Amino acid sequence: MAFFTSLYSGSSGNCSVVRCEGKYLLIDMGKSCRTTLNALKEMGLAVADMQGILVTHEHSDHIQGLRVFLKHYNVPVYGCSATLDNLLDMELVPPAAELIAIEGRPEEIGGFVVEAFPTSHDVPCCGYRIRTPDGGVMAIATDLGVLTPQVHQALAGVKLAALESNYDRNCLMMGSYPYHLKRRIQSDRGHLDNAECAAKVLELLQDGCEKIALCHLSRENNTPELALATVREAILCAGLKPGENVVIQAQKRNEPSDWMEF
């Protein structure tokens, strides 16, 4: 079987794992190398079994620990070409790091087949659709202001979807953020709110998806309770019942979440 978890997830840092048959892929490394290594150890994951690191984009909450990690471990890094170029140009990875662009075609990585798809953010950014060695299919999409046709296509037919549920609209509008930042977050190149996420979750469940991981929750403008309540209300209104062949989990901010099997 295949498994997904987040080592940490939120506006302060993001890192996820897809594991199957003793091997795994890491998606982003948004906290320090030490924090990430400690979380891997807590989950019983050896660096030697890491087949690659998938990077969504160059914002610090997704790559903070990457440079130090790559100084000590020779693990290939995958992403869209614009992101990889930016990592090099801004010296966010060592010059000798192995960087492999995968946009536009599937890439086989240690038995996993990975396809990148663009997401709508304020820098070049992508999500990933991953087929595991045993045939399981999942996708992760965070840091997106709108669900584009490419995102809909990438999420179609997956058994597990890790989807951004970044902010609650009322919390954001009533909060202390300056107006320009609120506009940026709400824009088509910002982040996905709970209601937009819930609508997509409902569509995915009706299409046969069985597991949902709510990711990248804002510390200031959201809570796990709000995100989960919004999704559950949408599901109940559609006549479905959470917990009956449907698992929805909000990923923890500062510690590993429970494994989700798919």
Automatic annotation (TrEMBL):
Domain of life: Bacteria
Metallo-beta-lactamase domain ranges (all copies): 12-180
Pfam families to which the protein is assigned, alphabetical: Lactamase_B_2
Classification via SMART domains: Lactamase_B
Name recorded for this polypeptide: MBL fold metallo-hydrolase
Originating species: Allofournierella massiliensis
Source organism phylogeny: Bacteria, Bacillati, Bacillota, Clostridia, Eubacteriales
